[in-house]
Amino acid sequence: MVRAIVGANWGDEGKGKLTDMMAQESDIVIRFQGGANAGHTIHNHYGRFALHTLPSGIFYDHTTNIIGNGVAFDIPKFFKELNEVTSQGVPMPKLLISDRVQMIMPYHIDFDKFEEERLGKASFGSTKSGIAPFYSDKYAKIGFQVQELFDEEALKEKIHRVLEQKNILLKYMYNKPAIDENELFNTLMEYKKMVEPYVCDVSAYLWNAIKEGKNILLEGQLGSLKDPDHGIYPMVTSSSTLAAYGAIGAGIPPYEIKKIVTVCKAYSSAVGAGAFVSEIFGDEAEELRKRGGDKGEYGATTGRPRRMGWFDCVASKYGCRIQGTTDVAFTVVDALGYLDKIPVCVGYEIDGKVTTDFPTTGKLEKAKPVLEVLDGWKSDIGGIRKYEDLPENCRKYIEFVEEQIGFPITMVSNGPKREDIIMRESKLSK
């Protein structure tokens, strides 16, 4: 069976622990989109890890871990991360890399930095990982697939052709030095040595795995609201963050995806610019930031303090719908145990009218939150393993959110470790 795990909101929902838990039950784990610009934080018996490109199944010797064709593949970062993980006692994982995956080139990272500098105050809050320039080149048909590393003459010709364009931009738009063709070719030959043992026809491998009845997990990055089509455009990422893209980014039939676990955090957080209706500020935000996440709400990749807000039912309902959610995993509920009262955003007021439907970006930027305040439970819920053992007000909070978003909450996370999860029967489950 093929399952997908994805985010409902801006990313940072706490997918790391859930992917680690679901990877334990999987034969194959696939990263199907995005690059090293975001990360999953995982706690297990090996220690604490912030994974950026490695699939979350690397901690299990029975799991094959795949970089799908939809990934923005930064080869040096990938192998640096692999070396860091194995140096901490994790056995060398089983790895496969799609022959069709495209590479982040060294100049993609440079162009990302140069463009953010050029935009100044109008910048997109990029992580400067080369993601937008990479996907721009991919769809302009001047990207480089891994398979191209194995035909050196054709590769040299393409480097020459592509650098003619890139060097004009560097000279006249950014006033930067030109890229040397030979130097770039030699760098790509180093990349070839790194990836050669792992490259294969991933789509064919997965087709056979599905026929054999293997359990396959599609691992997504970021969340619904960062999707370039359905998110808060233009403050989005450059690859689709939706479970539906898992079929494309891994190379499998879409009808094989049977279960879509969408992760919602029990409050809201976001890194980067863009509309964020339920956002809070000042001491109130800092207190939640300090108590939330894993050792506080800071980006796993960037270390940037996350923007904080109350749970947004409007955004989460939309985010779950657009993912095709079958199950909701509700995370970091334990972080709210300090509050006497817990506000929840249940609607948006736009031009004097209240809506519960998530609007397009222009309207979103005018929206004001409509809040409903629930009673807190004022206790530590860490260590609880049964839903009925949670404080009554905690259960009321979970059930209120479930009713508002209209999707079944079947998992409740109450701590950073793999075992800190409560399985729950939902009345909304089919």
UniProtKB/TrEMBL annotation:
Binding residues for Mg(2+): D12, G39
What is the enzyme's class at the highest EC level? ligase
Chain's role:
Plays an important role in the de novo pathway of purine nucleotide biosynthesis. Catalyzes the first committed step in the biosynthesis of AMP from IMP.
Q: Which family does it belong to?
A: Belongs to the adenylosuccinate synthetase family.
What is the cofactor note?
A: Binds 1 Mg(2+) ion per subunit.
Q: What would you give as a GO molecular function for this chain, any one? A: GTP binding
The prosthetic group or cofactor this protein requires is: Mg(2+)
SUPFAM superfamilies the UniProt entry points to: P-loop containing nucleoside triphosphate hydrolases
Q: What is its main location?
A: cytoplasm
Q: Name one GO cellular component term.
A: cytoplasm
Q: Which reaction does it catalyse?
A: IMP + L-aspartate + GTP = N(6)-(1,2-dicarboxyethyl)-AMP + GDP + phosphate + 2 H(+)
| Protein name in UniProt | Adenylosuccinate synthetase
Question: What species is given as this protein's source?
Answer: Ruminococcus albus SY3
Asked whether the UniProt record includes Ligase among its keywords, one would answer: yes
Per the record's keyword annotation, is Metal-binding included, yes or no?
yes
Q: Which Pfam families match?
A: Adenylsucc_synt
Enzyme Commission number(s)? 6.3.4.4
